[in-house]
Each structure stands twice: as structure tokens, then as C-alpha cells.
Amino acid sequence: MSSTRYTEAHEFARIDGDVATVGITDYAQEQLGDVVFVDLPEVGKEIKRGDEIAVVESVKAAAEVYSPVSGEVIEVNSDLEDEPAKVNQDAMNAGWFVKIKLADSTENQSDMDDDAYKAFIAAL
Amino acid sequence: MTSSSSSGTGDAASLSRTALYDLHLEAGARMVPFAGYEMPVSFPMGIVEEHKHTRTAAGLFDVSHMGQAYLTSSGDVSAALEKLVPGNIAALKPGRMRYTQLLNPRGGIIDDLMVTRLPDRKGRQVLLLVVNAACKENDFALIRDTLGNEVDLDVLDDRALLALQGPQAVNALERLAPAVSDLAFMAARTVRIDGQPLLVSRCGYTGEDGFEISIPQKRAATFARRLLAENEVEPIGLGARDTLRLEAGLCLYGHDIDETTTPIEANLAWSIGKRRREEGGFPGADIVLGQLRDGPERLLVGIRPEGRAPAREGTEICDRNGDAAGVVTSGGFGPTLGGPIAMGYVTRRYAQTGTDLALMIRGKPNPGTVTALPFVPHRYYKP
């Protein structure tokens, strides 16, 4: 069973065993507007929690995305190269950015769960 | 995730509102500060769809933040204005308009503006000036200070300005005012809608056919609602206004042009006619005419980055050997083209269409090519 946690900067990490799927939330894509390009890392890159892992370019601006987890990038979403709009259409699923093999699957336990994140964005 | 977006400056407490503010909120606009006003950057359709809608149907823009003023004189008002701009104002006949710039003594651009000659009033020529919002106070002060008693400047504080742009703009507007059907490009006329006069000009900032409509603020919201009720018309924000003008290769003051750029460097030499080139008589004329004669040291060009990453304002431009070549002054994504586009200044030897460049995006060189402007062909009304 996978668990999803969220950062205050609107990144999510969905952990399944020792692999995390990382991306930005639906709230984030709505704030950004139409996504035109996502700059993803190389497969094999070592990442620490808090490192910059991607840059999302919308029509108006660029936004840095930081990884909520540490580990090795094992897959990046190549669909986003031709269809960056997937981030707007389905940020939490088809619009995922990277998959990371985790060193420590409990690392992001202090991040918000579904309910906490819902409350967080409601207050923004 | 952190976002670095560029919108205007100003704290919420001191921002002005246009006559369409309530209408924007009703339509679900996302408002941002811009040039001291609260303006809609986008509506629920979103920038990309708003942009595409304008190129296929009709988009309605609120540009009431811009400055409008009448310039008249008991003497020759065109000769007076020509002391400040390099455009041929004397040749304007009533109902015609043209694009020009206010220049400083170095030939740099203080602001760009549209000048319309309206019908004479009581034997006096009347010019309508439309200037940029961020520059309007400075522009009007400059005109008063330089021309003094020679002219009367009547700032139209009670006017709104709307732009209706797109291939179907004429279809929508002529239902309300049949007289606009045959209005020529860069011409203006007063039309009546429900018995009330409006000044309609056939011009715009998108590269498409379209109109700008000057209307008293107290009638602006009602008129906007009437236009929005037409099938073709959707409200469009400043975000799409920027992507549209960039695809059309049009300069944005404060970005592509400013007090350090001359019209020649900015690829605007076309706006300076033969007589003014021969006679001068505008600020910085020696520098401007020298550049016309010898060529400027740098030129504003269009650039197409390869791939999908946009090259934004401030991006360093190098040649393929890594030597400095220039800087990007406007850059982003072109929804009609489906890819990134930019404008920037390059040293003259790199300015030829087809020149290979390297754009330093996030510290890495990204290939790009000098591309002829406009990126998307203009479709002005020229039957």
C-alpha cells in the first residue's frame, strides 16, 4: 500500500516499498498555469532531500522543484517531453516527474499527509 | 517548489483599478499588480487558450491602464510634437494614426506611443496620444516641460481603453457599429453605439486584425458586457497579451526598448520616414541618423531556441564558440508556434537570419537560431 506525503512547497512523494514517485501537486499546477516544459534530471543521479530535482516552465515563469526524499533517480517521465500539459491535466498521476529508489523509506514521515495538506492549501 | 514570476510592482493598498475591475472578478480573473494597477493576468481559460482564441476568434482586452491625452495648439501641434518624436506627424490626415517614440538626447527611447490625428476642433488640429501605463506620468510631464505654452495637453483621466483583437473581431463589433466594417488599418473614426460616441481605431498589439476603443469610464463596463455577449468574444488577460505581441515581434517598453536603446537598434527604423531622416529635428537625431548611415553596433533580433526550454529575459547569448554575443530582452513560449521564442540584442555581425547562437539557460548552452520577425505572420486588415 502506498502512502503520499506533501511538502509546503507543493511537491508530493508517493512511496511504494522502496520507490518514491515524485511530482508537483494539483494545487501547484493550477498556480503555475499552462506548463510548457519540464527540465528533468538524468537517470542515475543521486539526490538528497531538499535538492533541486526539476525545473517546471510555465508560460510566464520557471519554478524549481525540490525532492522530498533522498536516493537514486531510477526513472524520469519521458512523456512530459512531448506532452508537458500532462502536468496540468493530471499532476498527481500521469504528470509525475521522477521515480527515486530510496535509501530510507521513512525519511519523509514528517511531511504532511493527505488531510494535513488539504487543510494547508485551504488556508493559503 | 519556488517560483520566480515577473509581474509588476506595487503594494496592494496603493493599486488603482480600471472601470472593468468588477467585471474581471466576475469573470474569474486572476489579478496581479501591473504598472500601479490591479490587472487581470489570465481568466479561467488560461493563457494558452486565451492566446489561441485571439488568433482564431476575438479577444477582449482591458488596456485602460494606458495613458490617453489630447494634444492641441493654437499654432502647429504636429510641428511641436515632432520636436520630441522622429515620426512624420505633419503628414497625418484626420482619421489616421501612426506609431512613434519619445526620444532622449542620446536617441534612446523614453516611451513608444500611438499618435492619432482626430478631426480639427474649432480650427485647431487635435492629436490623440496613447502611451504606456508605466511611463504616462513621465511622458506627460516631459511634454508639458518641453513644449510648455506652445501646446495644450488634456489628459483623459476619465477614459477607458479596450482592445478587441482577432480575425472575428470585426464580425462582433460591426453588429454593434456597422461603420467599423470598412475602417482601414491604422485609421480611426468616432462611431455611435446606442446613440453614444466611441472612438474606434483599427490597430492593436497582437498582429491580428482588431480595434482599440476609447470610451468614457462610466460606459466602459456596460460596453464590455455587450461585446462579451457576442459569441466570438472572450475576455483575455495580460499574460496572453504578452505571448501574442511576442509572436508578432512587437516591442515591449521596459524590456525590448528603453532609454538605452535607439529605434535603429530596436529594428524600428521603418517608423522614421524620409523627411525626418533628412531634416532631423528630434532629440538624439545626430546619433540616430549616424546609425542609419553606418549601421548600429547591435540589433534587436528574433531568436528560436531549439527544443522546448524557454530562454527568458536576461539570458546571456553567446555564439557557438562561446563568445559573448548579446542578451535576451523578451522570451517565453509561443502557443501558436508551439515552442519557445525570444527577442534580444546581438552584436551586428550576429544579426543575420539563420545565425547559430547559444543561449545560456541555467548555466548550460542551448542552441538557438536568429529568426526573422514576426514569428507568426501579421494579418492586418489590408484588403
Describe the structure.
- The complex is a heterodimer of chains A (124) and B (383).
- With 124 residues, chain A is α+β, with helices and mostly antiparallel strands.
- Chain A has one domain (3-104, 113-122): OB fold (Dihydrolipoamide Acetyltransferase, E2P) (Beta Barrel).
- Helix content of chain A is 19%, strand content 37%.
- Chain A is built from 4 helices and 9 strands.
- In chain A, the strands form 2 sheets. Chain A has a 6-stranded antiparallel beta sheet. In chain A, strands 4-6-7 form a 3-stranded antiparallel beta sheet.
- In chain A, a hairpin with a 3-residue loop joins strand 6 (52-58) and strand 7 (62-66).
- Chain A is globular and about 35 Å long.
- The mean pLDDT of chain A is 95.
- With 383 residues, chain B is of the alpha+beta class.
- Chain B has 3 domains: 19-61 and 158-247, Probable tRNA modification gtpase trme, domain 1 (Gyrase A, domain 2), CATH 3.30.1360.120; 67-155, Aminomethyltransferase beta-barrel domains (Alpha-Beta Plaits), CATH 3.30.70; 269-371, Elongation Factor Tu (Ef-tu), domain 3 (Beta Barrel).
- Chain B is 21% helix and 34% strand.
- A 6-stranded mixed beta sheet of chain B has the order 11-12-13-10-4-14. A 6-stranded antiparallel beta barrel of chain B has the order 15-18-17-16-19-20. Chain B has a 5-stranded antiparallel beta sheet with strand order 6-7-8-5-9, with helices on one face.
- In chain B, helix 2 (47-56) crosses helix 7 (238-247).
- The radius of gyration of chain B is 21 Å and the shape is globular.
- In chain B, 50% of the residues are buried.
- The model of chain B has no long low-confidence stretch (mean pLDDT 96).
- The chains are: A alpha+beta (124), B alpha+beta (383).
- Chains A and B meet through helix 1, strand 4, strand 6 and strand 7 of A and strand 1 of B.
